[in-house]
């Protein structure tokens, strides 16, 4: 039951569509412009850098807040179990962001929300490596999509590695074992896999050599 509650809490937070709301405030539906995606990159391309920054902050923050709410509700639970419930909340946020029911299940691609899940874990190593990975890959390839997907793949690998080494978490070297460990890995895999699923069109364009690079103007 706690898992379902955490997932639902996350989904409700995920329904706050920053790019869509910002676009509506500027009298446009962000889904009808650019890539049609209600996320940070498209908001920046269509509405400018300010919109992109606001969208990222909003989408990232909702995952952190969902994790905090679940923590407060289940703070009396065992540490490892409580940690897993927070990841359920993170998955819920990504699902709510990607598939908001009131927008015909057409939302964003979940990268900003997923970065909020990473931040919500509260591990400086995960956060630092994630940021470094995204910046290095994006700058070197000039593709935001490649940087985003690399971030999510390495996030999955790092969670497993850090947990197996017993260095996941900044307060008490949390190491999750037993059924909770398998559950954690499955949840992180699903969150990461959702990023690849939502980027399927980008992956196709990358293979075909048609993906837009940073700063590249759309051909008319």
Q: What would your notes on this structure say?
A:
This protein has 220 residues and is mostly helical. The protein has one domain (2-208). Helix content is 70%, strand content 0%.
Span of the ends, CA to CA: 52 Å
The computed structural class is: mainly alpha
Uncertain runs:
none
Shape: globular
Rg over alpha carbons: 17 Å
Topology:
Blueprint: H1 2-14, H2 18-25, H3 40-47, H4 49-73, H5 79-98, H6 111-121, H7 124-141, H8 144-165, H9 178-198, H10 200-208
Helix pairs in contact: 1-4, 1-5, 3-4, 4-5, 4-6, 5-6, 5-9, 6-7, 7-8, 8-9
Briefly summarize what is shown.
This protein is mainly α and 220 residues long.
Using brief descriptors, characterize the structure shown:
mainly alpha; 220 residues; 10 helices; 0% strand; 70% helix
